[in-house]
Structures are given as C-alpha cells and as structure tokens.
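Appendix B. Worked example

We walk through a single record from start to finish. Start with the input: the chain for ImmA/IrrE family metallo-endopeptidase, Paenibacillus chondroitinus, length 187.
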Amino acid sequence: MPSQLCMTHLAAKLRIWVYTMDMNSMAIESNGQFSINVDRRLSPKEQWEDFLHELCHVLRHSGNQMAMPDRYVNWQEQDASAFQLYAALPLSMLRNLALPENKNELIAYLSEEFQVTYRLAKARIDQIERRVLQGSLDYEFQQYTQNQSNKKYDPSNWSEATRLIMNKLEFLKSRGVPAGGKANRLL
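Next comes the structure step. The output line below is what the pipeline stores for this chain.
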C-alpha cells in the first residue's frame, strides 16, 4: 500500500537516523552509522523524494563525493535519481491500483496517492511507457528475425536485377574465380 511508504517507517526499518535542517539534503556515514538530512525548506512531497534519493546513496554507494572524480559523482547521482523513481512508485504497488485511463489524470492520481510531485509521477509513467514500448519492439524484432531465418532461399522472389547478378556470380563460381578476384571487372 502506498501509505506504507514514508520516511519514518523506512528509516526505522533500516536503522537510519533522519533529521531536517535548513540545508541541502544529504546522506552521511560515520563509523558505520547512517544518517540523512532532509532539507526542511522543501514541501513534504519534495522532502520524501529527497529522502529516497539520499536513501539510494546509503544503500548502494560509498565514498565521499567531494573527493571523487566528477564522472563517478555524476553516475551516482543518475543512479540515485533512477532509484528514486522505482522506490517512490513501485510497480508492484501500481499493479494493485485501479488507475485512470487518461495520462494526465493518472499522473495527478499517482502524485496524490504516493505523495510525490507531479514531475516525479510523470517521470515514472514516462519511464514505464518507454519500457513497455521497448518490450513490444523487442518482441516484434524477435518475431521478425525468426520469420526471416525460417524463410527458405527462394529465387522466385528475386527482382530481375538480382537474378542477373546471381547468375553472373554462379557463372564466375563455376569457372573457379575466387570472390574478390580479377573477375570482379565483369560485374
């Protein structure tokens, strides 16, 4: 249930100390203990999203970003943003809801039901749509390639130009001319 998704519940389960201050949200590790500061100047929905972003850093990343190469920091931030989408709107929970058909209504509904910003709900729905489309395209391509490999070598489907080229190739092959040999000038 979406109501189970809240900072205090998750933090208690994961033994993470959460506090709020008038500063940017961040995760901190000290002597094996983790804490997350959530920027209290943000709206409750934005605080929840920041918490999930920082939670990813706690669960999946290590090191001090101030001492890391920019590319690695960027990768960690991208990973945390992707994690945030999954954690805020888990597909397993979405499947159990009666969802509106209209995309804008769906996004607004999910924003309220899961207490996330409209922007994050839209990003998650867009992500799901892309994955569904990719799955459909992958399936169609697989079907197409299977059909292509099942087709027999059928000269009756050749154009006249293809027939002429293939006949020349057969002629050269019968004369023992290797592919790429001097007989290429005949073609």
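Two observations about the output. The first strand starts at residue 16 and ends at 21. DSSP finds seven helices and three strands in the chain.
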